[in-house]
Every structure is written in structure tokens, then in C-alpha cells.
Specification:
By secondary structure, the protein is of the alpha/beta class. It is about 40% helix and about 15% strand. Strands 1-2-4-3-7-8-9-10 form an eight-stranded mixed beta sheet, with helices on both faces. Strands 5-6 form a two-stranded antiparallel ribbon. Strand 5 and strand 6 form a beta hairpin. The radius of gyration is 19 Å and the shape is globular.
Length: about 325
């Protein structure tokens, strides 16, 4: 059973981008009585909640997979879209307080209205791409709230997964926009989105720059003329990347009851390499329950993996 709500967020009211502070919030729950573990599902970059209904030919949506296969749990679909593509699920002076919104507003609201086992031992996070990254980061920052993570083709390891595309975006800025991000943004918003080559790279790089910015003044982490990183800006990104976060939050990671990581071996962002990095580093940390799996696929059309991660979490959070 899926309930659809409009959630009014105090944390997002007056956010720097002027994005809505009223957000859709969907809650799927099983039929019958009882109390259940809860899993909060985070979307990837550019994701909006109604996209969960998007259908690929001959393939069920995640919502339909829940109806057919879900274990007994409460599944919460959280919207953290922004007008620059996404929030990375962090609090930022350039985008807004999306981490606070999730942890301090949505979680207690759900626990107060749904039959959840309202303790961190029974609460988990799931996501794909930037949503998988957000699930991992949120669990590290708030081990008092969450005890499990399922990350499908989750982002991270920025030096490998994102930095190589800076040069492609720099060429586009040079050749079409005189090196100006503002000119690209104006053009991007005036035509069908992603109708030019490298639009996605530019939007992602701009959105990440906003999420990791220390001020409302957003700048790319590289010189658009050369693609060479600007150290003080790039360091802001790296402070939010796994090589910096994992050692700093080792105890939080060891406290988790379940960590599930998977990725396609043909992932276009090379996030299979991020998954292998997590396998190595989390094993070395001695996390108690870690599952890392690579499978034959790219980055898209892996919705069939979500029930696997959900089942893994629910079994350990029940």
C-alpha cells in the first residue's frame, strides 16, 4: 500500500535556490498489523519522486516490485531534488539543509504516523548512484538514527568517477559558452534538458559544487580554460568523499548491522571501482556485516537490484 503525502519542511523553507519547501513524501507499507523496520530510499542525481513510476519496456517499476516481493517493512521515498539537480543529501549554504530535512524532520514524522520499529537498530537507508552515496554518508553522519545501508551503483571516489570528465565539460564551456557556466546554465534552461553533449556532466559538476560549497557563491572545482583543478575548491569536494569520510567515521561504520554494496561491471561512471574500494576499506575496518557484489550491467536499468538490497537490510534490521 502506497501513501502519498505533501510534506511541509521548516528546514527547506527559504532555501538559497528558492526551491519548494513543500515536498512529496511517499510511504509504502505492508497490509496487516504489526510493527516493522523502516528503509528510507534516496534517489540519484536529477531524481524527482514521480520518476519512481517511470517504466522501462517489459520491466516492472520498483513500486511494483515492492508489491510483488517486498519483505514486511515500511519503505519511505524521500524527495531531495534541487534546481541544480540534487542536494547530495548534505546541508549546504548554497542549496539548503537537506540532511537536516531528512534526519530531523522526515524520520520522526514517519515514526509518529506509521507502524515502524522506531529505533536505530531497525532503520536503514537505500539508494542508487548519488542516492547510494547519500545513504552511506547519512549513515556515517547519523549512526544514532540508522543501522543499515544498501547502495546500488553508489557514487564516491571522485578522483576516479568524476574528475576525468572535467576535461569534457571544460571543452564544452570553451567551445560553446566562452568559458562561462552562467551562459551554459541560461542555455540549458532555455531548451530541452540534456539535448547537448556534456549537459549531464556540467549539471552534475555544478550541482556537486553547490552541495559541497562553503558559501552561497558556487564555483566549479577546476579552471574552465584548462580543466585543471583549483586546489582549495577541489578540497571541498574531497572532504565529502569516502577516502576522507570512511576513516573519520570508522566507529559509526563498525556499528552498522548491515552494509550492502553493488554495481554493474560496465558502469559508465566506473562506480564498480568505487564498490571495490569500499570492499577493501570496509573489510580492513572490520565492519561486521558487509556484502559487496559486482554484476554484468551498466549504470542504468538496474531497478531489479533494489529488492535484493532491501531484503538484505530488512533481514538484519528486523
Amino acid at each position: 500500500m502506497l501513501d502519498e503525502h505533501l510534506f511541509e519542511s521548516a528546514s527547506l523553507r527559504g532555501n538559497p535556490l528558492g526551491d519548494p519547501h513543500e515536498r512529496p513524501l511517499w510511504v509504502w507499507r505492508p497490509e496487516g498489523d504489526g510493527s516493522y523496520p523502516s528503509v528510507y530510499v534516496l534517489q540519484g542525481f536529477t531524481g524527482q519522486l514521480d520518476m519512481w513510476r517511470n517504466r522501462q519496456p517489459f520491466r516492472p517499476t520498483y513500486l511494483e516490485l515492492l508489491d510483488a516481493t517486498a519483505p514486511r517493512c515500511v519503505v519511505v521515498f524521500v524527495d531531495t531534488w534541487t534546481s541544480v539537480g540534487g542536494s547530495q543529501f548534505v546541508d549546504s549554504p548554497a542549496t539548503g539543509r537537506y540532511h537536516t530535512y531528512l534526519c530531523e524532520e522526515v524520520v520522526p514524522w514517519v515514526d509518529a504516523r506509521y507502524p515502524t520499529l522506531a529505533a536505530r537498530e531497525h532503520r536503514g537507508l537505500q539508494g542508487k548512484s548519488s542516492g547510494g552515496y547519500g545513504a552511506m554518508v547519512t549513515a556515517m553522519l547519523r549512526p544514532d538514527l540508522f543501522a543499515g545501508v544498501a547502495s546500488h551503483a553508489g557514487g564516491g571516489l571522485f578522483e576516479v568517477s568524476i574528475r576525468p570528465f572535467f576535461r569534457d565539460a571544460a571543452r564544452t564551456l570553451r567551445d560553446l559558452y566562452g568559458g562561462s557556466v552562467d551562459r551554459w546554465l541560461e542555455d540549458f534552461r532555455s531548451r530541452p534538458a540534456f539535448s547537448r553533449e556534456n549537459d549531464l556532466h556540467l549539471l552534475l559538476q555544478w550541482g556537486f559544487s553547490a552541495a559541497y560549497s562553503a558559501t552561497p557563491d558556487v564555483r566549479l572545482p577546476y579552471d574552465p580554460a584548462t580543466g585543471q583543478v583549483v586546489p582549495e575548491r577541489w578540497e571541498r569536494w574531497l572532504a565529502w568523499d569516502f577516502p576522507a569520510l570512511v576513516p573519520r567515521h570508522a566507529e559509526a561504520l563498525r556499528s552498522l548491522r548491515a552494509i550492502y554494496v553493488d554495481s554493474g561491471t560496465r558502469d559508465e561512471w566506473f562506480l564498480d571501482l568505487t564498490a571495490e574500494w569500499l570492499r577493501r576499506e570496509l573489510t580492513a575496518l572490520g565492519v561486521p556485516d558487509l556484502h559487496v557484489e559486482l554484476f554484468d550491467a551498466g549504470h542504468a536499468e538496474i531497478e531489479y537490484r533494489y529488492p535484493l538490497g532491501l531484503a538484505y537490510l530488512v533481514e538484519r534490521l528486523s
